[in-house]
UniProtKB/TrEMBL annotation:
Record flagged with keyword Magnesium: yes
CDD domains recorded: HAD_BPGM (cd02598)
Binding site for substrate: 8-10, 24, 43-48, 51, 75, 113-117, 144
Cofactor(s) the protein requires to work: Mg(2+)
Chain sites annotated for binding Mg(2+): D8, D10, E168, D169
Protein name from the UniProt record: Beta-phosphoglucomutase
Length: 217
């Protein structure tokens, strides 16, 4: 049976993906090039340092480790400026309702985010006491598409991967869930999230019963 739901943060619970994009775009612009929204799909769910490497390769730049650290820090400062203005109004539509269904169904929950800023964001939106386990960028050594962030969540909840459903908006995150041996619900477009077991536009259009019926027959 399904015992736990594991949630990504950015793009599933809150739309911080847009703030990451704005901050990375500002950085790329200062370095003399631009990044498109389509290109940004490659950065979703990918760690800060890996994202920077992908952006620099896109701009044809090779920089020292020291300079890269500076740039990553600068991006994070811009990102934190945007995040500091967040409130519970930034929780994505359908999330509160979905979580009350999750609780009624008696399922456990974990957060699986590679963001080092996840605890701060949860606090800003008033969701720091909602999850049974929180795995974030400070607790893992490998970002998505490595499954570590989700396998650690399952381990902390003491459930097996086959008893978990992952909710993800990113290509790298869907891959992480699948590599971890879990069921994956992709939130977004089926043309982009091709590896997901089920795709819906957002949590607003899904019910817990529908998800359970799909994966436990
Ligand atoms: P930070 P998720 C990921 O969060 C974001 O999708 C990704 O764009 C970001 O680079 C990464 O967190 C690291 O975030 O710079 O705050 O540590 O989707 O796994 O919740
Ligand atoms: Mg995400």
């Amino acid at each position: 049976p399904i015992k736990a739901f594991l949630f990504d943060l950015d793009g599933v619970i809150v739309d911080t993906a847009i703030y990451h994009y704005q901050a990375w775009r500002r950085l790329a612009n200062e370095l003399g090039f631009d990044i498109s929204e389509e290109f940004n799909e490659r950065l979703k769910g990918v760690s800060r340092t890996d994202s920077l490497d992908i952006i620099l390769a896109h701009g044809g730049l090779t920089l020292s480790e020291a300079r890269k650290t500076e740039l990553a820090t600068q991006k994070n400062e811009w990102y934190l400026e945007l995040v500091s203005r967040m409130t519970s109004d930034d929780i994505l539509p359908g999330v509160p309702n979905f979580f009350s269904q999750v609780r009624k169904a008696g399922l456990q929950t974990a957060l699986g985010s590679v963001s080092k800023n996840a605890p701060l964001i949860l606090e800003r939106i008033g969701m720091n006491n909602v999850f049974d386990a929180i795995i974030d960028g400070n607790k893992i050594s490998k970002g998505k598409p490595d499954p570590e962030v989700f396998t650690k969540g399952a381990a902390e909840l003491e459930v097996s991967p086959a008893e978990c459903v992952v909710f993800e908006d990113a290509v790298a995150g869907v891959e992480a869930g699948k590599r971890g041996g879990m069921y994956v619900v992709g939130l977004g477009s089926p043309d982009v999230l091709t590896q997901a077991d089920l795709v819906a536009p957002s949590l607003e259009t899904l019910t817990v019963d529908e998800v359970l019926a799909r994966f436990q027959g």
